[in-house]
Amino acid sequence: LRAHAVDVNGNQVENPIDIVINVIDMNDNRPEFLHQVWNGTVPEGSKPGTYVMTVTAIDADDPNAQNGMLRYRILSQAPSSPSPNMFTINNETGDIITVAAGLDREKVQQYTLIIQATDMEGNPTYGLSNTATAVITVTDINDNPPEFTAMTFYGEVPENRVDVIVANLTVTDKDQPHTPAWNAMYRMTGGDPTGRFTILTDPSSNDGLVTVVKPIDFETNRMFVLTVAAENQVPLAKGIQHPPQSTATVSITVIDVNESPYFVPNPKLVRQEEGLLAGSVLTTFTAQDPDRYMQQTSLRYSKLSDPANWLKIDPVSGQITTTAVLDRESIYVQNNMYNATFLASDNGIPPMSGTGTLQIHLLDINDNAPQVNPKEATTCETLQPNAINITAIDPDIDPNAGPFAFELPDTPASIKRNWTIIRISGDHAQLSLRIRFLEAGIYDVPIVITDSGNPHASSTSVLKVKVCQCDINGDCTDVDRMVGAGLGTGAIIAILLCIIILLILVLMFVVWMKRRDKERQAKQLLIDPEDDVRDNILKYDEEGGGEEDQDYDLSQLQQPDTVEPDAIKPVGIRRLDERPIHAEPQYPVRSAAPHPGDIGDFINEGLKAADNDPTAPPYDSLLVFDYEGSGSTAGSLSSLNSSSSGGEQDYDYLNDWGPRFKKLADMYGGGDD
After folding, report:
1. 645 by DSSP, 3-state: which?
2. Annotated region Disordered: where (predicted)?
């Protein structure tokens, strides 16, 4: 503080002075740890003096006085094994270090320490204190080698099987699971010089899986005794050695199974000239059975594939004989090679079989005569230009093919008189006219072709030459004649068949037309002479209302079933007493009654239908039963009362028609009355 001395008037009487007040600290704050729980780690097997962790506390009092000077100590350790004082703490810095040996994670994995911090330099009487917890985890090191649970493991495997697990090797390791110090690796130290086995590690169980990677033959090896060592992924800690339990023996027994027989050699190559006759012995093709220790009978042989069906095999001895002549030029021979496949089977359980291929290399012989190509040619009537190029074709190969000799035969004499042939190369020749003019037509020219084989083979091939008239360019001009001449037998037969089929179709159509005309005529109404009135009474459904029907289209009477509906009648010819055309309730349409055999029945049916029809006019009005149409060939029924003909006809025959026509007989047959 600054103090001033003044008089009553405010005048300074002395110089100002500073008054210093010192606040003396007292121990009124406890130490506080930065964390209530401290975590640390230490490797197992650590030597004394190994640093573990540091704990820190703070005090709000004066750090330069005893009130703020802290001291640390360990109050307790849990668990207390192998020693109650495994750790110590620096009382000033709070560093925790190991003080005793014997840290073993497999025995104690974690220690819990209670740490106390006290001020007043740790004075237990006047100092204030506080506590915190230090958790120390003992980490794992590879101080435990893997150990097999048994000294010998056993397994078995069928011969010729691969990718098969034959044995499970189990180990124990006290280190922390699923760490490099626990994960096991297996290696074979002996018993498998050819590398037929491998050992994989199961990541979940740490077991060793002995697996076959190469086929094993029972006839060669019946048992394997493997020596196996187990190690961890990381080396053992310094000073620790592998015990004998880290090595084990694996005894594997091979099981004999029925194996497939095999042909020796496979494929088998045989060289043979073509033309070998059927029934000849070609070779013997046998197989071997690898199962020497099984009680089996001899093998049986059969044919599996023989494209040309040339061969057969003896089922017991395997001797192969021919069933047909071997032909190198067959379509089943490729590059002079013919392949056939045979099967050898045993009687084991289960039965097994093996296949073998026989390759027959066929040597060529001169068994094919050359032929001319092409078979047809065209030339002109005149000498120039008239050269025809031909080629000799021989299925054989050298030396039984070209060069070829070409010549014309001596007979008939006209061949050499009209033609000449010249060889232009080993396979080609040129045929031309010898005479200046040869009449147009088709000529068969025989050509003798001989190959170079030993002995020679020759044939006479016929070249069909079409001689035609040519223009200045050497092109045929009589195309129509050449085309007609060039038609073969097959083409002519095809044309004739087409013509015959066409005629049959036309005949069938004509017959069908005639039959349809007869049916149509049978349906038409037959009308006799006009003097027979009875035959003029036609049945064409309900007739209508009397004389006024003369304006109707009477042509409809010929087909009474096809009557026009009222809706399409012309308005000008509609009867006055018909129902007007307007929207009416829809009643069920009464079906047309079948045509009665008698007109009286017909009228009665119409009356009954009209009486029951709710849409009909009143009963005392003139009824319209149907529309008869116009153009009837029978004329109107009103002709019965025609003034022009009524006095000239005799109607006495109406009395013969029965009681239903009595009224008509009285009206017309009563004489002057």
Report:
1. coil
2. 630-651
Which amino acid, one-letter code, is at 370?
Answer: P
Checking if the pLDDT of 48 tops 70, the result is yes
Q: Is residue 41 part of a domain?
A: yes
CB atoms under 10 Å from CB of 201, counted, come to: 18
Determine the Cα–Cα distance for residues 52 and 45; give it in Å rounded to an integer. Answer: 13
Q: What backbone phi and psi angles, to 5 degrees, belong to 288?
A: -120, 145
The DSSP code sequence of 498-534 is HHHHHHHHHHHHHHHHHHHHHHHHHHSPP---TT-TG
CA distances 378 to 387, 388, 461, Å, are 9, 8, 17
Whether residue 25 contacts residue 120, with contact meaning beta carbons closer than 8 Å, is answered with: no
What's the token pair of residue 501? 């089929």
Task: Enumerate the β-bridge partners of residue 380.
Answer: 468
Q: Which of the residue ranges 25-34, 290-299, 556-565, 593-602 would you say has the lowest mean pLDDT?
A: 556-565
| Residue 569, pLDDT score | 46
Per-residue pLDDT, averaged over 540-558, amounts to 52
CA atoms of 19 and 474, how far apart (whole Å) = 149
Chain Cα centroid distance, residue 106: 60
**Residue 490 φ then ψ, to 5°:** -60, -40
| pTM for this prediction | 0.47
Beta bridge partners of 601: none
> Which residues make beta-bridge pairs with 430?
389, 422
Read off the CATH number of the domain in which 312 is found: 2.60.40.60
Q: Is the dihedral of CA 663, 666, 669, 673 positive or negative?
A: negative
Residue after which a domain boundary falls, among 345, 363, 381: 363
Q: Between the CA of residue 293 and those of 102, 255, 400, what are the distances in Å?
A: 63, 12, 55
- Rounded to 5°, the CA angle 174-178-183 comes to 70
539 within domain boundaries: no
User: Which one-letter amino acid corresponds to residue 263?
Assistant: F
- Examine the domain organization and report whether 294 and 351 are in the same domain: yes
Reported as a single tens digit per residue, the pLDDT across 190-203 is 999 989 999 999 99
Distances (CA, A) of 22 to 1, 347, 640: 11, 118, 165
The answer to whether 109 and 61 have CB atoms below 8 angstroms apart is no
Structure-token pair, residue 601: 């029945």
Confidence category of residue 531, pLDDT binned at 50, 70, 90: very low
Peptide bond before residue 395 is cis, with ω within 30 degrees of 0: no
| C-alpha neighbours within 13 Å on the C-beta side of residue 123 | 10
Residue 574 is predicted with a pLDDT of 46
From the list 49, 87, 51, 89, the residue with the least C-alpha distance to 70 is 89
Q: Taking residues 518-524, what's their average pLDDT?
A: 73
Q: What is the pLDDT of residue 53?
A: 95
Contact between 660 and 600 (Cβ < 8 Å)? yes
Spatial distance between the Cα atoms of 70 and 87, rounded to a whole number of angstroms: 20
Domain count of the chain? 4
Question: How much is the mean pLDDT over the chain?
Answer: 81
**Amino acid, res. 656:** D
pLDDT of 234 strictly over 70: yes
Give the whole-angstrom CA distance, residue 267 versus residue 48. Answer: 78
Helix (H, G, I), strand (E, B) or coil at 536: helix
Question: Which residues span the domain enclosing 105?
Answer: 32-139
Maximum separation of any 2 CA atoms in the chain, in Å: 192
261: cis peptide before it, omega within 30°? no
Q: Are 45 and 103 in a shared domain?
A: yes
CB 305 within 8 A of CB 341: yes
